[in-house]
Design brief:
- The protein is mostly helical.
- Helix content is 80%, strand content 0%.
- The termini are far apart.
């Protein structure tokens, strides 16, 4: 009788680890319940702790991308506002010049 290999998704592995770490479910019970070897559980736990910083690194990268996008938007809006001020300034200057020519000022 051959034994079929089971593949667990990362979400399933985290759920199993969470059951042990947060709910204090004994490792032996979890392994029996899910049909996995104890050493496999501890391999998952080791990988989880060794790569746990990636979860925080991803957030930092996403935050940096969001900040960069906001900075670009702010710069574009500031440039647009500067151009509007220049145009408005020119129009006001022409308006005053016309009024002077017409003798209204």
């Amino acid at each position: 009788m051959s034994r079929q290999r089971r593949h667990f998704t990362p979400e399933q592995k985290v759920a199993i680890l969470r059951a042990h770490l947060l709910e204090k479910t004994p490792v032996s019970d979890l392994c029996e319940q899910h049909g996995i070897a104890v050493n496999l559980f501890y391999n998952w736990q080791q990988q989880f702790f060794e790569n746990g910083q990636a979860a925080f690194t991803a957030n930092d990268k996403r935050r940096k991308v969001d900040t960069d996008a906001k900075d670009r938007t702010i710069a574009a809006l500031a440039d647009k506002l500067r151009r509007k001020h220049e145009v408005l300034s020119e129009l006001m200057e022409e308006h005053v010049q016309l009024k002077k020519e017409l003798g209204e000022l």
